[in-house]
Write a structure and sequence with these properties.
Chain B: The chain crosses the membrane at residues 52-76, 97-113, 119-138, 150-167, 179-199. The complex is a heterodimer of chains A (10) and B (212). Chain A is mostly loops. Chain B has 212 residues and is an all-alpha fold. The chains are: A little secondary structure (10), B mainly alpha (212).
Chain lengths: 10, 212
């Protein structure tokens, strides 16, 4: 998998 | 969004409401570490100021505003309104031992070497250890009011629920966030001793007491 750059978690 | 993350966030929300309830009804912040609460303000400000340039959802923004606002309000209650009930002499953990390593780690481990990303990493690392002054205080006093333990349990359950959330996201979306996952596992690990006493004693109606 790739790291999420959007930081959509709290 | 999945159920694990939603329940995790709600548990986080609940922990803060429990803490506010404890302070307001007992008119006291006895047993609460000011240092841990101050670290949470730093965590939330460092991570959630992105609400000025990154829009995810109304849910996300509302939660961010709530976490920044409530943590600052708790600090205000401890520092001013209920100041006499706050005993700094038992809140002795040296937070520079947390701040400095987290700052260094965030310079090494980040997704992009730019201020906003470094701040994000810093907040993730700091959050994982921010509870230590509180747990240290608990260890020193050896006991806690039931409501304080409910606060800590809700806070620990919040991060514990993020772990199945990450596993779920890995399989459904193919995403993995190594920084958040590593820090999250460490953070949950710090609660294991506490959870043991909480589930075997407090939830059986006994007092939270650590063996001498």
């Amino acid at each position: 998998g790739s790291p999420p750059s959007s930081h959509d978690e709290l | 969004m999945n159920l694990f993350r939603l329940l995790g966030d709600l548990s986080h929300l609940a922990s803060i409401l429990v803490l506010l309830h404890k302070i307001q009804t007992s008119r006291s912040c006895r047993g609460i570490s000011f240092k841990t609460q101050a670290l949470y303000v730093a965590v939330f400000v460092a991570r959630y100021l992105d609400l000025f340039w990154r829009y995810i959802s109304l849910y996300n923004s509302a939660m961010k505003v709530f976490f920044i606002g409530s943590s600052c309000y708790i600090l205000y209650l401890m520092k001013y309104r209920y100041r006499p009930t706050n005993d700094p002499s038992i809140d002795t953990f040296r937070i520079e031992y947390l701040l400095v390593p987290c700052a260094i780690l965030s310079l090494i481990f980040n997704y992009n070497f730019m201020p906003t990303e470094i701040l994000w990493s810093f907040s993730i690392f700091l959050e994982s250890v921010a509870i230590l002054p509180q747990l240290f205080m608990l260890q020193r006093t050896g006991e806690a009011e039931a409501i304080t333990t409910h606060y800590l349990a809700a806070l620990g359950i919040y991060r514990a629920l993020y772990i199945p959330n990450w596993i779920y996201r890995y399989f459904t979306e193919g995403v993995i966030d190594p920084i958040a996952v590593t820090a999250g596992i460490v953070q949950t690990g710090l609660y294991l001793d506490f959870f043991y006493v909480y589930f075997t004693k407090v939830l059986q109606g006994q007092k939270f007491e650590l063996p001498a």
